[in-house]
Amino acid sequence: MLDKRKGSRLPGFYNLSLEARWKALEDWLTAADLEAFRESAGLSLEGADHMIENVVGLHALPLGLALNFVVNGRDVLVPMAIEEPSVVAGASFMARLARAGGGFTAQATPPEMIGQMQVLDLADLPAARSALLAQKEILLGEAAGIDPLLQRLGGGPRDLEVRLIETSPIGPFLVLHLIYDVRDAMGANAVNTAVERLAPRVEAITGGRVHLRILSNLADRRLVSARCTIPLSELAFGGYSPEEVRDGIIAAWAFAAVDPYRAATHNKGIMNGVDAVVIATGNDWRAIEAGAHAFAARDGRYTSLSTWSRDADGNLTGALEMPMAVGIVGGATRVHPSAQVALRLMGVRTASELAEIIVSVGLAQNLAALRALATEGIQRGHMGLHARQVAIAAGAQGEQIERLAEQLVREQLVRIDRAEEILRSWQTGSEG
Ligand code: MEV
Q1: Catalytic option among 177, 382, 406, 421
Q2: CB 370 within 8 A of CB 308
Q3: Annotation says 6 is catalytic
Q4: If you measure from the C-alpha of residue 378 to the centroid of ligand 1, how many angstroms do you get, rounded to a whole number?
Q5: What gap in Å lies between CA 52 and CA 122, rounded to an integer?
Q6: Does the CB atom of residue 378 touch ligand 1 within 6 A?
Q7: How many other CB atoms are there within 10 angstroms of residue 295's CB atom?
Q8: Is the pLDDT of residue 217 over 70?
Q9: How confident is the model at residue 430 (pLDDT cuts 50, 70, 90)?
């Protein structure tokens, strides 16, 4: 029996049957909660039919739990929805190494989103800009009245910025940014409503025409940074010395820091962890992806979102900073049953707390990839899990899956044609 007092350390979880894993989670979740983790993630066809248009079915993904995470001193079990093997195992293993150094420390800025208004047809752009800035308090006051509930919760408009775009394919124009604190929401609805409602006033002040009114996914005022220290002694494995692993990881990061071709893949590894938690909690992963990659190119050159270095004691330290516009209220987080349970499992009370966990998982995932790449290569660890998928695709069932996967790895031939051949031979009793 697993013990809740051990927090997110659940040794042996990997080897339990599905039933036993659910049983182990009874310490965290109610029986009704656990129902949402069974078939169809608790989402009925009827429920789905209310979520989007032209529904004809459900699309399921595996939901795994990343173990060993300590974020800001708190143990947390992290739900991850992802189709790719090795990701959950990689995050859990790296969280264990980070745990030996005190876990992850993460910090979120206030949940401020940016709403954009594109102002066209202006005769005198600097004059229009000055007029808007002169009326800033009035505009902010008007914006504050748009969402009384958000205002009561401590959110609402924070600032106005006016940008002058001097050259564009249609000539110069103004862009107004409404900085809007959305508290525990992702914020798209709140921000889009606010900019749409404010537009007529902006037109009256400038004499121009407000064209686009929409949230920016480059949420660079809603940033989260996470860091961790891996004690040098935790880094040795196989025939690799801890210094070799540490310096190998730093050299791998340096590659991503200077080369966009490598940075794209490096950041994809980070997003393996980030997106999986974002999806599990019913959040908008396209928004997170867009924000992450735009932020990675903020200095005009696409680069790594993370940094890795050694501290004064020779330990490995990592840091990751990125926008994280996620919510715990509204949208699919409210209507998707297993997303609700995922949030309860993590025990997050604010969107910022969720964001801090997500960025910590991104950092762990990055470490998992770099550690493998800097040593034995990515394929070795991948193969076992990949082989299981190949075995299933070839038609293996039940106990055949593990047995077939093991044989494929042993033969170093993880291919569907070989898997089918072996299965056929088992059926005719001629091999295996
Ligand atoms: C694969 O999904 C992710 C990696 O390519 C990330 C990386 O190269 O850093 C392994």
Answers
A1: 382
A2: yes
A3: no
A4: 8
A5: 39
A6: yes
A7: 18
A8: yes
A9: low
Nearest to 27 by CA among 5, 49, 43: 5
CA distance 118 to 195: 10
pLDDT at 214: 98
Burial of 279 (0-12, 13-18, 19+ CB in 10 A): buried
Which member of 284, 321, 353, 356 is catalytic?
Answer: 284
Separation of alpha carbons 246 and 254, rounded Å: 12
Which residue among 220, 268, 376, 406 is the active-site one?
268
Strand-pair partners of 116: 177, 214
Q: What are phi and psi of 181, to 5 degrees?
A: -80, 115
Rounded (10°) angle between helices 337-346 and 351-373:
80
Ligand 1 center to 290 CA (angstroms): 18
- Decide if 284 is catalytic: yes
Determine the Cα–Cα distance for residues 301 and 258; give it in Å rounded to an integer: 9
Across the chain, mean pLDDT equals 93
Minimal-distance CA residue to ligand 1 atom 10: 369
Beta carbon of 262 within 6 Å of any ligand 1 atom: no
Of 61, 101, 102, the C-alpha closest to 82 is 61
CA 269 to ligand 1 centroid distance, Å = 4
Q: Please give the pLDDT value at position 428.
A: 87
In this structure, what DSSP letter does residue 22 have?
H
Mean pLDDT confidence for 271-278: 98
Known catalytic membership, residue 49: no
List C-alpha distances in Å: 167 to 129, 160, 164, 173, 412.
16, 22, 9, 8, 57
Query: 3-state SS of 23-75?
Result: HHHHHCCCHHHHHCCCHHHHCCHHHHHHHCCCCCCCCCCCEEEEEEEEECCEE
Top mutation candidate among 249, 255, 271, 373 for ligand 1, by most atoms within 8 Å of CB: 373
Which atom of ligand 1 is nearest to 269's Cα?
Answer: 6
**Does residue 21's CB lie within 6 angstroms of at least one atom of ligand 1?**
no
Mean pLDDT of 316-325: 98
Q: Which residues are 199's β-sheet partners?
A: none
Residues 6+ apart with CB under 8 A from 202: 117, 119, 132, 139, 176, 208, 210
